[in-house]
Structures are given as structure tokens and as C-alpha cells.
Amino acid sequence: xxxxxxxxxxxxxxxxxxxxxxxxxxxxxxxxxxxxxxxxxxxxxxxxxxxxxxxxxxxxxxxxxxxxxxxx
Amino acid sequence: xxxxxxxxxxxxxxxxxxxxxxxxxxxxxxxxxxxxxxxxxxxxxxxxxxxxxxxxxxxxxxxxxxxxxxxxxxxxxxxxxxxxxxxxxxxxxxxxxxxxxxxxxxxxxxxxxxxxxxxxxxxxxxxxxxxxxxxxxxxxxxxxxxxxxxxxxxxxxxxxxxxxxxxxxxxxxxxxxxxxxxxxxxxxxxxxxxxxxxxxxxxxxxxxxxxxxxxxxxxxxxxxxxxxxxxxxxxxxxxxxxxxxxxxxxxxxxxxxx
Lengths: 72, 258
Known about the structure:
Oligomer: heterodimer
Number of strands of chain B: 7
Shape of chain A: elongated
Low-confidence stretches of chain B: 75-86, 111-116
Strand content of chain A: under 5%
Mean pLDDT of chain B: 79
Radius of gyration of chain B: 31 Å
Order of helices and strands of chain A: HHHH
């Protein structure tokens, strides 16, 4: 499995999940703090946190190639 | 702290975004809860992957230049605002880069190739059909009226930079009646004209290396049947008002090696 390929696919595949993509790119690729992401995205800090959690969870599922997760 | 709360805080914990008190509480919970520890490991694995330099690359200066060149208003706007009292966060530039990276990644990896081929194919199809219609309307169907392939083929010599394969399929009901020069998508091409009963088939031919080639397919557009394929270094586009089955037979004959 080519992880970079999968990541790229995920970033584009989730067109309906623009919010997730935005938060992942800003945090993981650009290294912005939550507060900065909140300012850039125009959403509250709590929303940044929950979006990031859900986005990372989606990424984890994708990268671990698991249909279901058993963590939560 | 329970697991649900831990889930809410785990990302902020990893990103060092929690205050000291919350950090200690999460740390404590992780020590006591194997399930959340697993979640923590999973998050770290994702983080490690995202640190992988493979998922990043430098945006070429040429691309940045192109983007900026088509955004004159936005750029001047930014400059203007920089000089004003408006505060421009330092991360404006990374944000633009992030957007660029996302777009680049998508262009690179999402199967956009097929889509661009398709749109290119559509443009070609329109061009080919237009040429076909023009050839019938403007009494310019044939530059070289001949049923002899040994007359038609040499006629193209010196008029084109390539020598198109010319074959007659009269025995199979597709009679070669001549050829002409035509112009498709910005280049000169050979057009062979065949007759099927009262129907005219235009067969456009150009070399494969011209960059106009697309995957083989047959379809109907604007009431015309169109079929295109590649063979022996040439691209073939056949268009006619003949029925789809006949055109398929014609394409099949042409595709056979001579």
C-alpha cells in the first residue's frame, strides 16, 4: 500500500468533507495551531478539535485499511 | 475522565493544545485505559504518516508563477492590504501553499487523466463531426476522387508529413471513393472517404505521436455515429450517418492488419 497515494486520494475523494480536508491540511501539513485554524476557518475552537478528531479517525481507517474500527 | 471525554481531548493532547491541568488528566487516563492507549497509538501512527516527506513536495516556482499571473486582482489586493492597517496573519502564505498542495495532490493522484482524455475526446469528436458535415455540405468531399487505393495513397505524398494507410473494402460493402486533406484540431490530417450504400463515411487519419490520441471507443453524437481507434502508429476517427453496426464493421475491417 502506498500511503502517500492513499492520503492524496483521501484528500480529494472527500469533496463533501471539505471541512475535514481543510483542518488536516492546516494542521498536519502547515502546522497551524488550533487557534490559528479557528481564525482561518472562521469556526470555534471546539469545532476545530472535533473536525480534526473525525478527520484523523477517517484517515486512520483509510490507512489501516479497516472497514470498521474497534477503538470507540 | 471517562473514555468519551478522552476521545474529545486526545487530539488536543497529542498536539500540545491542552492546558497543563487537562494534559495531566488525559495522561493519567491513558495510563489506566488500554483502549484509549490504543486510540492514542493509532493517532500517533496517522501523525507519523503525515510527517512522511512522501506526502509533501515543493510546489514548483513555475506553477506558483502561473497561479499568481492569473490572480492579478487578488495579488494586488493582498499587497494593498499589507500596507494598510489590516492585520494579515503570517499563515496567509502557508494557507495558499496548503491549498496549492491539496490541488496538486488531487491532480496527481485522482484519476483525472481519464477525465481530461474524455474532454479532449469530446472536443475531437466535435471537430471530426464538423469536418464530416462540412465535407458533405460544401461540395468538398473529395480532393482525389478515386476508387483505387494505389492512386489515393500516393496523392497524399508531399501534401502531408505522413503517409496514411489506405485500403479499399469494396468487397465488404465499404467502397473507397477518394480522399482529401482536412484540418482537425489544429493540424492537417488525411480524410479517406468511403461509401456504404448511399451513406458516406469519413475516415480521418493522423499519426499517433501528435498527442491527439485517445482510447478506442464508439459513440453517437449529434445523430452521427463515431468510432475511433489506433493502429500501427496512426489514430483513426470514422464518422458517418451510417448505422452504428455498419460503422463497427467498418472499424473492425480497418483495424485488421493488412
